[in-house]
């Protein structure tokens, strides 16, 4: 039997405190009614101390006081309805439809906290997701079931890159349906409109599910939005047997929301004021990506985060790097040269790439070509530093060829048009075209048999 409480202890922003409670559970959903305005709100229990509880309110808390609220504990966790009809739909941070399609009617409601994936039941990620972006597909290949973040900075084109990945990403050579779940957290309305317009113009909206939290929406919704998005992704992957790519932007906004709530709760802060549980909170989100043995479907995750002051040691990118399997770093220097996408090859990597490329998946020369591109570009950066001291005209003939390779690699290989999509074969063929600039004896990272066949 549900119990209704009419008196609160305190109201602090979006947090309310109640005492004298019976049988209340952590994470339990709460229905809140403003007696003055008749407005109905939703909350969630985020703290319990004996017979007292702290409730987090999703929604605007203006006009709320200790005397005008009616609070009912529902005895269940936060749940959202899911069905195949969610494809092509747009929802807010708590899973309510904000497009003109009306509410989602479903037979089942799903707990947004998900079901923990048994590590023994996890299938090792194999096979790749083709993004159509040469820099990513060649040197830091995205593997199905992987979590591969994009580390960006203010003013860099991470939004354009995310939209391009959504438009172009696909699973090559498989019959399974491919879908995208897009989660925006704290986005400006013009940025959110850009994403939606881009998906519509590309004709991919029917395979995309959008969970959107705007910058002027309550921060409490920002905290639950990624959990709603991942719950939808797990439903599409493990019940509808689709391969699902989840893109989340911006995880920095999510972390700042956690910090604000933690401050309201007067918790002891950790690095830069973030709560001490930031690592476990991020891990609870990122680790929901993956595949399950014996179940068709997969969840691949690309979280995007903007590094404050381009500081890769900031707590959010730092902890994200520990949890995920690599990173794609965007370069402010390449962006200043007008190169799009400005992917920093030398600071980016995909730790699972070696197991999802090669003859069975992409092409037998892929691993060798990737290693040679990385080594040759790294050598180019060293020679550029030398050229600044002695002058480029004083360089040896081989070093000048490496300099030419570096220039063309940045402009012709890394750089590509926003609407340009390359298959993995086109990407590797373009790489061989650049490697032919270099002397054969310098191609030491490539097996001689492969070198004879492709060079």
Automatic annotation (TrEMBL):
Top-rank taxon, per record: Bacteria
A GO term for molecular function: proton-transporting ATPase activity, rotational mechanism
Swiss-Prot/TrEMBL GO biological process terms: proton motive force-driven plasma membrane ATP synthesis; vacuolar acidification
Alphabetically ordered keywords of this record: ATP synthesis, Hydrogen ion transport, Ion transport, Transport
Domain (ATPase F1/V1/A1 complex alpha/beta subunit nucleotide-binding) ranges: 132-350
Residues of the ATP synthase A/B type C-terminal domain: 355-454
Domain ATPase F1/V1/A1 complex alpha/beta subunit N-terminal: start-end pairs: 11-75
Pfam families documented for this protein: ATP-synt_ab (PF00006), ATP-synt_ab_N (PF02874), ATP-synt_VA_C (PF22919)
Function: Produces ATP from ADP in the presence of a proton gradient across the membrane. The V-type beta chain is a regulatory subunit.
Family: Belongs to the ATPase alpha/beta chains family.
HAMAP family named in the record: ATP_synth_B_arch
Protein name: V-type ATP synthase beta chain
Native source organism of the sequence: Aedoeadaptatus ivorii
Organism phylogeny: Bacteria, Bacillati, Bacillota, Tissierellia, Tissierellales
Gene behind this protein: ntpB
């Amino acid at each position: 039997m549900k119990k209704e409480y009419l008196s609160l202890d305190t109201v602090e922003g979006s947090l309310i405190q109640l005492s004298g409670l019976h049988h209340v559970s952590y994470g339990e959903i709460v229905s809140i009614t403003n007696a003055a305005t008749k407005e109905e709100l939703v909350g969630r229990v985020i703290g319990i101390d004996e017979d007292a509880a702290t409730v987090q309110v999703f929604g605007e808390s203006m006009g709320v006081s200790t005397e005008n609220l009616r609070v009912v504990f529902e005895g269940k966790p936060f749940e959202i309805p899911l069905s195949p009809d969610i494809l092509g739909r747009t929802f807010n941070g708590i899973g309510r439809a904000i497009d003109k399609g009306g509410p989602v009617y479903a037979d089942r409601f799903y707990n947004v906290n998900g079901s923990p994936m048994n590590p023994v039941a996890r299938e090792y990620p194999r096979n790749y997701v083709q993004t159509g972006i040469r820099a990513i597909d060649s040197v830091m290949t995205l593997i199905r079931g992987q979590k591969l973040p994009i580390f960006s900075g203010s003013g860099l084109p991470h939004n354009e890159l995310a939209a391009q990945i959504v438009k172009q990403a696909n699973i090559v050579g498989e019959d399974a349906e491919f879908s995208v779940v897009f989660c925006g957290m704290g986005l400006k309305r013009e940025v959110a409109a850009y994403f939606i317009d881009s998906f519509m113009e590309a004709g991919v909206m029917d395979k995309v599910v959008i969970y959107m939290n705007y910058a002027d929406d309550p921060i409490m919704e920002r905290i639950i939005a990624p959990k709603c998005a991942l719950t939808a992704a797990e439903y599409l992957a493990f019940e509808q047997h689709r391969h699902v790519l989840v893109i989340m932007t911006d995880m920095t906004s999510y972390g700042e929301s956690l910090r604000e709530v933690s401050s309201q709760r007067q918790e002891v802060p950790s690095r830069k004021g973030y709560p001490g549980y930031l690592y476990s909170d991020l891990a609870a989100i990122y680790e929901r990506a993956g595949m399950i043995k014996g179940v068709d479907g997969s969840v691949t995750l690309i979280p995007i985060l903007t590094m404050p002051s381009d500081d890769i040691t900031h707590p959010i990118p730092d902890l994200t790097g520990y949890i995920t399997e690599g990173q794609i770093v965007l370069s402010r220097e390449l962006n200043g040269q007008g190169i799009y996408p400005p992917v920093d090859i030398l600071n980016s990597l995909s730790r699972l790439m070696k197991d999802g490329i090669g003859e069975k998946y992409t092409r037998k020369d892929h691993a060798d070509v990737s290693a040679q591109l990385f080594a040759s570009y790294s050598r180019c950066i060293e020679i550029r530093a030398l050229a600044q001291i002695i002058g480029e005209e004083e360089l040896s003939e081989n070093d000048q060829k490496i300099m030419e390779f570096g220039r063309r690699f940045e402009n012709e290989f890394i750089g590509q048009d926003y609407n340009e999509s390359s298959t993995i074969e086109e990407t590797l063929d373009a790489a061989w075209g650049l490697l032919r600039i270099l002397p054969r004896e310098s191609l030491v990272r490539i097996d001689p048999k492969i070198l004879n066949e492709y060079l």
